[in-house]
Amino acid sequence: MNIRVAHDQAHGHAHDTTSCRLCGSTADKTFVDLGMSPLCETFLAHDQLDRMEPYYPLRVMVCGECFLVQLKEYVSPHEIFHEYAYFSSFSTSWVAHAKRYVEMITERLGLGAQSLAVELASNDGYLLQHFAPLGVPVLGIEPAANVADVAIAKGVPTRVDFFGVKLAKTLVSEGKKADLIAGNNVLAQVPDLNDFVAGMKILLADEGVITLEFPHVHRLMAENQFDTIYHEHFSYFSLLTIEHMAARHGLKIIDVEELPTHGGSLRVYLAHEASARVPSDAVAALLAKEKQAGLDRLDGYSGFQEQVRQTKHKLLAFLTQAKAEGKRICGYGAPGKGNTLLNYCGIGPDFLDFTVDRNPYKHGRFTPGMHIPIYPVEAIDAARPDYILILPWNLKDEIVNQMQHVADWGGKFIVPVPEVAVIDPKEFTR
């Protein structure tokens, strides 16, 4: 994307474009409108609280041709990812997930010393580090310099750059071809999907495999996960849409797995169309399941807005009641998704005294929009709140297990999605 276009789109001149970012046809059907919201990873320092914050629409559209569910690009990735507050390694379960993946894929593809595994948006090396003991050469590609530096310090070779056709051609000219290209939770964050996928096609060895993980739009709808919608996520995918995307670029889907991560994700395996690799039965089965759910027609996407409103009403009713009874409530976590939830529902310090996070980068800062202070996890023990609202609800098991001791003072957890639920750590068994 040229800089002028990026600038126009970043400064709000994009409202007249309704063309789909994948297939170019019209995407003018609203999937859900969450109102105006600030950027979800811009945690504010104390001296920034009196400044005006930019808010952008969180209005999600669906394309009538390829059924890509998408947000307009109001902000360029350069603004979002130049310095990024998200370090993958702070989630223990996510690092364990990455390690299992590396061991599985190395065996499945027979990777070894002659292979090359490339990860797009490799973050702090949380995944690629696990290839070293297996003797597989790696390359990380990560646009956020502050995060890439952490990976490089761990000994994970990393290029600080955005991935697309240009970088792919450069790598190939240096003699690199990837036997594995991994992209975990990056596809959603790419505004120029076609440039990104075309780049993967160029970099992929003849019999190489691409694996992409992303939240499954079917699960997002079924389980009301509206808070996974934020400006950093430009697109939300079904397998049907991925099939369109692959075909556009001479790729084919050879396998798919449904994963529990991020509230329900897909891991899709792609290969060159000409590759000898044959699609597994899982592919046809999931495509059929999606069609049955109506994901191949526009009206299959129409009930989501009302579902989301109901969730908001129920959560606010619960919190208001708890406050009326004099209860103390704080948050656990300050994830991007939490900020969509807090801003859409209007939950500020009037409801949550503070929230806590394991990432020291966020300590002493405030959540965007609602300005809830963020403290280290130990603050919960000092405050002994009656309720703890779990904002990264996809990690609720991990969090309740880590925080079992809140039962000592009668503390309980609130999970907001798919609908309000209270977890008493005394009764919680995994």
Binned, the helix content reads 25-40%
> Element order, helices and strands?
HEEEHHEEHEHEHEHEHEEHHEHEEHEHEE
Annotation field: number of helices: 13
Overall pLDDT = 91
Question: How many beta-strand segments?
Answer: 17
Radius of gyration: 22 Å
Determine the N-to-C terminus distance.
Answer: 47 Å
**Structural category:** alpha/beta
State the major sheet: 7 strands, mixed
- Looking at the structure, what is the overall shape? globular
Q: Quaternary state, please?
A: single chain
- Largest sheet, spatial ordering of strands: 6-5-4-7-8-11-10
| Percent of residues in β-strands | 15-25%
Instruction: Point out poorly predicted stretches.
Output: 1-16
Keywords:
single chain, 430 residues, alpha/beta, 7-stranded mixed beta sheet, 6-stranded mixed beta sheet, 13 helices, 20% strand, globular, disordered N terminus
Describe what is shown at a glance:
With 430 residues, this protein is an alpha/beta fold.
Descriptive overview:
The structure is a single chain. With 430 residues, this protein is an alpha/beta fold. The chain has 13 helices and 17 strands. It has helices spanning 3-10, 77-81, 92-109, 145-153, 165-173, 193-203, 217-222, 239-248, 281-292, 304-324, 336-345, 379-383, 396-402; strands spanning 29-38, 55-62, 69-71, 117-120, 138-141, 158-159, 178-184, 204-215, 235-236, 251-259, 265-272, 329-332, 355-356, 374-375, 387-390, 412-415, 421-423. The strands form three sheets. A seven-stranded mixed beta sheet has the order 6-5-4-7-8-11-10. A six-stranded mixed beta sheet has the order 14-13-12-15-16-17. Helix 5 runs parallel beside helix 6. The longest helix is centred in the C-terminal third of the chain and has 21 residues, at 304-324. The radius of gyration is 22 Å and the shape is globular.
